[in-house]
Amino acid sequence: MKTKPPRDNKLPDFEKSLTELEALVAKLEQGDVPLEEALKTFERGVALTRQCQTALRTAQQKVEVLLARNGDETIEAFASDDEEEEDDDDTAGR
Question: CB under 8 Å to 21, separation ≥6 — which residues?
Answer without folding.
Answer: 45, 48, 49, 52
